[in-house]
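Q: How would the structure tokens look for this protein?
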Amino acid sequence: MTRMLPWSFVYWAFLLFSCLSPSLAGQEADEATLKRYSLQAEEALARKDVDAAVIPLEKLARLTPNNPEVFANLGAVYYTQGRYAQAADAFQRALHLNPKLPNGLLMLAICDAKLGHFREALPTLESAFRHPPGVEMGRTIGLTLAVVYTSLDQPTKALEVIEALLNRFPNDPEVLYRASRLHGDRALQTMRRLVEVAPDSSWKHLSYAEVLETQKRYDLAIIEYRKVIRADPEMPGVHYELGRTLLLKSPDREEARDEALKEFQQDLALDPRNSAAEYEIGEICRRRGQLELAIDHLSRAVDIDPETEEAQIALARTLMQLHKPDKALPHLHDAIRLNPKNAVSHFLLAGAYKSLGDATDYQNEMVLFQKYHLRRYTDKPAGGDEEPSVLGDTESTKQTLDSEPPPQP
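A: Here is the predicted structure in token form.
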């Protein structure tokens, strides 16, 4: 089945039926016949029936072989049907009849790109992307140009185009998908090059560790992280990554927490301003009931990076465990500012308001807690699909509801 392209593209391209009839006069067929075919094509396109528009347009092309607009319109319709070779022929004919036909060269270049004639398409697409004739076509030109650069083995230029598209269309699903594919392909090529030129380097082991971690093969990732540390004990961040992987492998084992704690402390010795390491140490202390020690580390984590949601929540809940709900409030407000839909923050804030005797705000927060707590289940994708992990992006320990029951009214 022929894949139809976006309908808005048809109207952008040429579709000049409102002015076709006058220009058809004086051609090889009688004017009444030409107007009838023109009207049929117009009506078919008004119904968004591209297939039905093709027949009258083809008849018009045979009857008016010197009318560039007819061939341009026919080329646009062929293009939307994915008939790129026929579309290119129609545009070439239109340009032969009128070399100054608006957007004729651009449409021919797009068809050339679809047909694999990348070098022929490149100059026109580059110029059009810098000065697109419209928003929708700027998107089409950019996506096409990225493919052309990739096919011509110019990945840097392809990435530049896709970044420009992300700025222009930050929420466009196809642009986001194409960007992720392009960046992913480039990352894979770069990693292969790394393995080729430096097979025994710490950087190769680090890249392997990150990949294994995203695959949840924690045992193997730990081995690779330790190889990195043996090769370069002072590489920034590696001790932290190892500590997080140890916790991911055995989140409930005290021995794993002991090992992870040593790695986090080692990372802080190398980088005293690593707020993530401070947070992890503070969280281990909190879970062990070492509340004052937890306060010290969590406070430093928040001081270094106030935008760390998990640290704000952990500090607040530790203060509440120390019966200081008034001091917990600003940290919970900051956490909610950072992520208004986190049920844990609203749950804890409800508890703080209850301790302070504020029944109204307690009830409001409990409503929000129930709303976002339930949404975790109602918004879960069918089949239990999870979002893909991001390479090299180890998340910090998440704050959860643990075993604490919701506060009672």
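The domain at 7-150 is CATH 1.25.40.10 (Serine Threonine Protein Phosphatase 5, Tetratricopeptide repeat).

Residues 1-7, 14-22, 405-409 have pLDDT under 50 and may be disordered.

Upvote if useful.
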